[in-house]
Amino acid sequence: MQDLAGLRDKKGFICDMDGVIYHGNKLLPYVKEFISWLEENGKSYLFLTNGSGRSPRELAQKLARMGLSVTEDHFYTSAQATASFLKSQCEGGSCYVIGEPGLTYAMYEAGFSMNDVNPDYVVFGSSKSLNYEQIEKASRLVMNGAKLIGTNSDLTDPSESGIIPACRALISPIELTTGRKAYFVGKPNPLMMRHALKQLGCSRVDAALIGDRMDTDIIAGIESEIDTVLVLSGVSDLETIKQFAYRPKYILKGVGAIAGVEAEI
Question: Which domain holds residue 32?
């Protein structure tokens, strides 16, 4: 048995979404009870997702369709983190975007213009409509001087039908073609974690990070000195943990264990 008293005493919770809150359009067990526990106990919480396809408003609407009422200020995406980072690097710049509407919207909001001729950046996020022409164009732009940016370094994502390719896997043809390595902004990049703590409004010692992946969520928390919770409802499992030289502080079956409504493992 794990002593969860210290975890439950935390003031703020940073939660991944895919594999923690839902799979695709399917809400995971006891998530409603977990959200109710957060609200009833006055906890600050932020859904931090490496997904870049949806805006916070769309994510709030997605949860609403699943029966959860969460306002859009509780969300922070890798698209927002990417846009914020690039604004600090090249304010008023231009980009060629491969990704879903949420990524394009975040770049517009940060003051970037779309440019498929000579952009400052090629910005890549996972896209179900990715095609060869986009890969060819992006490769040519990078070879002509555009910097290659990935919204996150996830190789795979969980879905209702199983594990699917994600940003790092899909961007690799561009890297291999150009010989250039992408810079990834999302988890486990500490940039995104600092943004999350700032938005959460609490210090790292008062926060906990909940995720389903050892290679992004858990390492992000460890490198940012935030207590980590691995839930076994997504990508990583008990066998996966053995492959890594680090361990999460807590290992739980799902988020319901924090609210005391689900077995720990």
Answer: 5-50+187-257
- Assigned token pair, 213: 């992946």
Angle of CA points 194, 198, 200, to nearest 5°: 115
For residue 149, count other CB atoms closer than 10 A to its CB. Answer: 22
Mean pLDDT of 38-66: 95
- Residue 25: the pLDDT is 87
Q: Which residues form the catalytic set?
A: 16, 18
Residue 246, both tokens: 């680090």
Distance CA 115, CA 121 (A): 9
Residue in the block written with tokens 């022409």: 133
Q: Which of 184, 218, 239 is the last residue of a domain?
A: 184
Q: How far is CA 173 from CA 69, 124, 137, in A?
A: 40, 12, 12
- Can you give the pLDDT at residue 14? 97
Residue 163: band (very low, low, confident or very high) from pLDDT cuts 50, 70, 90 = confident
Whether residues 91 and 179 share a domain: the answer is yes
Is residue 173 domain-shared with residue 102, that is, in the same domain? yes
Q: Is the pLDDT of residue 158 over 80?
A: no
